[in-house]
Structures are given as structure tokens and as C-alpha cells.
Amino acid sequence: QLQLVESGGGLVQPGGSLRLSCAASGITLELAIITWFRQAPGREREGVLCISSTGGVTKYSDSVEGRFSITRDAAKNAVYLQMSSLKPEDTAIYYCALQPVWRSSGRCGGTTADYTYWGQGTQVTVSS
Description:
This protein is mainly beta and about 130 residues long. Helices cover about 0% and strands about 50% of the residues. It is built from no helices and eleven strands. The strands form two sheets. Strands 2, 4, 5, 6, 9, 10 and 11 form a seven-stranded mixed β-sheet that branches. A four-stranded antiparallel β-sheet has the order 1-3-8-7, with no helix packed on it. A hairpin with a 4-residue loop joins strand 7 (about 70-75) and strand 8 (about 80-85). The radius of gyration is 14 Å and the shape is globular.
């Protein structure tokens, strides 16, 4: 059974860093598109960064330019969201979402409706 488990969230001061992990089971990540989404209180879920099956990266949000990055570790079958220079407006629940390549174009893009598998979410709070 395909599962995603996120970890790494927490409370951090403005300007700090966190690394979120998304560990997958039931699928090899080279056969999937992975996107990190986030949802702040009272707002819609928005895409942050995506990594395609071939390793290409797509940025959904200009607000994370130069501060967030996404990487994939094939040995651990995990995807990471490295976040630095965190701001209070980055406060949200962060979700990793996966779509197998056989259910998609294999390239990043789309909305939440285009992803079948979701992790449980991890809270990131940026506050002094």
C-alpha cells in the first residue's frame, strides 16, 4: 500500500531553517511526481515546490524563491523540503503529495486535485 509520512516540522524563529522529510513506501519515487503543498489558516492549499520523476524541479510560489529547495534521495526513497530564511508568513501545515507517472504526464504542474496520495501533514510555525 502506498503511503507518505512527513516529519520535520516544528516551531522556529524568523530567519531560521527547517528540513521537512517525506518518506514513501509502496512506490519508488523515480516513478512519481512529488509536490510539497502548504495550507495556512484560512487560506487555500497552495503548491510550493515539485520534483518530477526525472528530477526536474518546478517552483509554484515566488515567495519561496532562493529560500526553499526540494531534493530526492533514492536510497532512502524520500523527498526533502529544505527551508531557510523562514518568515512568519511561511507558517502553515505542509503536505507532500504524490502522483504516479502512469496517472500523469510525468511532469510537474497541476493542482491539489491532480494528486492521489497525500501525507498527513506537518505543522511549521515561524514565530519569535
